[in-house]
């Protein structure tokens, strides 16, 4: 026998040396050769013994494993997936005093493996998805609390890549709500958690009713394939052993007592449960037993590799601007399965190119498990599909996450240097994706024109314009889908529901609810992605008794104007929400308050359009419908003075602001100040209207002045703040309006009516 062992050892070492000479596909692969002569000889001994199926070597492995992790019982199976299936079946056993029933709700994180989920469905329960914390990548305790209902009876805790959630809080929730717990520890064998209860550190996988582990080739220890289920009671242990092998009695610790109840049946083939065949081979038991001797050494290397890579990365400024490593949960000591990494906001659109860069340079990589599992097609096929966009933590991991191997042998300094250099050598060159909401409105359209005119859209600065047809911003689900699709790094929020003063006065509830919903959804989702954001407010926020000229402080000097107060209050709420997001989350959210905007692609209806557009619409259409002499009717005496802001000038301010403005208080922007009479005369001249201007003094003038002090903007923006001369801006507005009317007249009736909805 000694000669055979020597021969096997010599052959094994020779082949290993030959393999090292062969060029590998990856210099830094996910899996390494983690076994040696001892494992080979132990498996050869099994084969030579002739006992291949489940027997003493598996039993020895189970005993050693239970002692290693600190549980009373361990049952070996043929894979980690089988371990999950067996454990869930055991939780459903009616022989257990506390067990799951068909239809019960079982909580599970949105980032999980397929066979973490499938046993829930296969046993007839209802999975309830819970979002994850993108920093720890494990189930979010805050979200978990929200998902617990009277129907919740169980939870599958998936310990991701060596890390865990806050087990103290979770186990308190488990106790309070009497939940059954399956810990999927397939990627975290050897990770510890300290509950801070005086009991010291314990292995993950030993807190719940059942803990499952995997011995796949690339995991913490391996038997090629294989897995283990741990439990705490003899009844559970016997149930696992019976289910593992057909549901028969052969492996029960109380076999004789059970078999004595059925004297008329052959005890060798006595079936008492609905079982499976999930048995491991003896060679797997032998290999895993040897591997258990290496577990602490392997995991010490994993921890050391993670620490050294983290220190090397954190010493480089490029790391801090491009990516972050997974954060260990408090009181968790992870045996790192890999280096889980999240790209910074705004870089997700480059993930595919970045992973190709890693692969081309010899660094193998993988998604973090299956990403957001709700995006997998199987969820649409076998479950009532929940919207994956409603799980923002999982979406971050899905769109910006990946991992590479931590390895179970301590890496040479040269390998650490190679890995970190490769990770940081990709040319990210900040590719901003700027999302503009309200793209169909006057301000959004102006931003689109300025971007086109000034060549602001480049390979590294992508502009995305979204309007009503693209997403209903009142619907959080639609907003999440929009952000998931476009992955913006910056947002210019122009969208609002606005109409005539009469309509807003008549329906204040609807205008309040719609605007609040839009603003809440956009800011909430932008905050989750840590986007930079600038929102457009409105001068209707100004209280009616303000003293002019007014600066930004006047916005909060009283209640908004009564005529459109619900819209004004919604904008006031947006301003305050912006401040709160800055204060609580340290985000770069800001606001701009424009005054009296005008320009192309806006509203030109007399009853609802802003001053200049309303006059342009009246003047161009004067005398065209009823044959009467044309006249330009103007509300009031014409004496009040107003600052008139061209929409493209506002667009330039917003483009500057989304890159540069970082202020908790809003910034006012206004244009050239003219009397209403001067505006009317300029419109009459530009439109070449032949009729007279008629001032309707039966209508109120309003304040004679509403002068806004823009000194703050001039101080902050400097040369970036410039105004288009009023006559030039007016000429361009009139030209656009006349062209729009001409186009509408040449369209089919149905199309024309939609196109011209705000032209008449």
Automatic annotation (TrEMBL):
SUPFAM superfamilies: NAD(P)-binding Rossmann-fold domains, PLP-dependent transferases
Residue ranges of domain NAD-dependent epimerase/dehydratase in the record: 434-663
Coiled-coil intervals: none
Gene3D superfamilies in the cross-refs: Aspartate Aminotransferase, domain 1, NAD(P)-binding Rossmann-like Domain, Type I PLP-dependent aspartate aminotransferase-like (Major domain), UDP-galactose 4-epimerase, domain 1
InterPro entries: DegT/StrS_aminotransferase, Epimerase_deHydtase, NAD(P)-bd_dom_sf, PyrdxlP-dep_Trfase, PyrdxlP-dep_Trfase_major, PyrdxlP-dep_Trfase_small
One of the record's GO molecular function terms: GDP-L-fucose synthase activity
Species in which this protein is naturally found: Chromera velia CCMP2878
Protein's name in the database: NAD-dependent epimerase/dehydratase domain-containing protein
Organism superkingdom: Eukaryota
């Amino acid at each position: 026998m000694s000669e055979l062992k020597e021969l096997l050892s010599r052959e094994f070492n020779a082949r290993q040396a030959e393999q090292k000479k062969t060029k590998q596909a990856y210099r830094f692969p996910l899996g390494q050769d983690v076994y040696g002569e001892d494992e080979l000889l132990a498996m050869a001994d099994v084969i030579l013994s002739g006992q291949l199926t489940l027997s003493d070597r598996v039993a020895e492995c189970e005993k050693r494993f239970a002692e290693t992790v600190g549980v009373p019982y361990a049952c070996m199976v043929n894979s980690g997936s089988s371990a999950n299936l067996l454990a869930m079946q055991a939780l459903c056993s009616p022989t257990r005093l506390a067990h799951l029933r068909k239809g019960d709700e079982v909580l599970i994180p949105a980032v999980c493996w397929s066979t973490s989920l499938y046993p829930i469905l296969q046993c007839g329960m209802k999975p309830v998805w819970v979002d994850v914390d993108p920093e720890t990548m494990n189930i979010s305790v805050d979200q978990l609390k929200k998902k617990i209902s009277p129907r919740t009876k169980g939870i599958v805790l998936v310990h991701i890549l060596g890390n865990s959630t806050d087990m103290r809080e979770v186990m308190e929730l488990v106790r309070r709500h009497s939940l059954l717990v399956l810990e999927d520890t397939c990627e975290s064998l050897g990770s510890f958690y300290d509950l801070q209860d005086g009991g010291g550190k314990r292995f993950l996988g030993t807190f719940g009713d059942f803990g499952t582990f995997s011995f796949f080739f690339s995991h913490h220890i391996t038997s090629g394939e294989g897995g283990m289920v741990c439990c705490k009671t003899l009844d559970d242990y016997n149930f696992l052993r019976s289910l593992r092998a057909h549901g028969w009695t052969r492996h029960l610790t109380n076999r004789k007592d059970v078999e004595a109840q059925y004297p008329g049946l052959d005890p060798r083939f006595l079936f008492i449960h609905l079982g499976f065949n999930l048995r491991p081979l003896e060679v797997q038991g032998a290999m895993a037993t040897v591997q258990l001797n290496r577990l602490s050494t392997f995991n010490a290397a994993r921890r050391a590799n993670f620490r050294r890579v983290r220190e090397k990365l954190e010493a480089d400024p490029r790391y801090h601007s491009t990516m972050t490593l997974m954060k260990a949960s408090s009181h968790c000591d992870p045996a790192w399965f890999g280096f889980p990494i999240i790209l910074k906001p705004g870089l997700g659109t480059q993930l595919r190119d970045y992973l190709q860069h890693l692969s081309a340079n010899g660094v193998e990589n993988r998604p973090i498990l299956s990403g957001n599992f709700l995006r997998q097609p199987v969820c649409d096929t076998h479950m009532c599909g929940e919207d994956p966009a409603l799980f923002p933590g999982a979406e971050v991991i899905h769109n910006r996450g990946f991992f590479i191997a931590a390895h179970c042998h301590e890496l040479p300094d040269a390998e650490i240097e190679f890995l970190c250099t490769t990770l940081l050598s990709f040319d990210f060159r900040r590719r901003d994706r700027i999302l503009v909401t309200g793209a169909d409105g006057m301000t959004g359209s102006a931003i689109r024109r300025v971007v086109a005119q000034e060549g602001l859209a480049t390979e590294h600065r992508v502009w995305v314009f979204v309007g009503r047809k693209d997403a209903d911003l009142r619907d959080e689900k639609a907003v999440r889908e929009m952000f998931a699709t476009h992955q913006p790094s910056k947002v210019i929020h122009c969208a609002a529901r606005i109409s005539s003063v009469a309509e807003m006065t008549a329906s204040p509830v609807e205008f309040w609810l719609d605007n609040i919903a839009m603003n809440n959804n956009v800011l909430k989702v932008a905050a989750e992605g840590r986007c930079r954001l600038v929102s457009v407010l409105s001068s209707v926020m100004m209280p009616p008794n303000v003293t002019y000229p007014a600066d930004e402080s006047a916005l909060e000097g009283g209640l908004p104007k009564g005529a459109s107060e619900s819209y004004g209050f919604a904008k006031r709420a947006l301003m305050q929400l912006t401040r709160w997001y800055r204060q609580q989350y340290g985000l770069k959210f800001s606001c701009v308050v424009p005054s009296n905007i005008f320009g192309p692609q806006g509203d030109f209806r007399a009853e609802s359009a802003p001053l200049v557009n309303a006059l342009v619409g009246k003047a161009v259409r004067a005398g065209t419908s009823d044959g009467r002499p044309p006249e330009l009717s103007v509300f009031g005496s014409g004496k009040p003075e107003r600052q008139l802001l061209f929409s493209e000038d506002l667009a330039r301010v917003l483009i500057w602001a989304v890159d540069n403005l970082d202020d908790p208080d809003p910034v006012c922007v206004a244009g050239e100040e003219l009397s209403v009479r001067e505006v009317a005369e300029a419109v009459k001249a530009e439109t070449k209207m032949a009729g007279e201007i008629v001032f309707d003094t039966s209508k109120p003038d309003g304040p004679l002045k509403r002068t806004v002090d823009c000194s703050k903007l001039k101080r902050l923006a400097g040369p970036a703040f410039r105004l288009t001369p009023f006559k030039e801006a007016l000429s361009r507005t009139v030209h656009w309006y006349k062209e729009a009317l001409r186009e509408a007249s040449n369209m089919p009736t149905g199309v024309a009516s939609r196109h011209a909805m705000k032209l008449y």
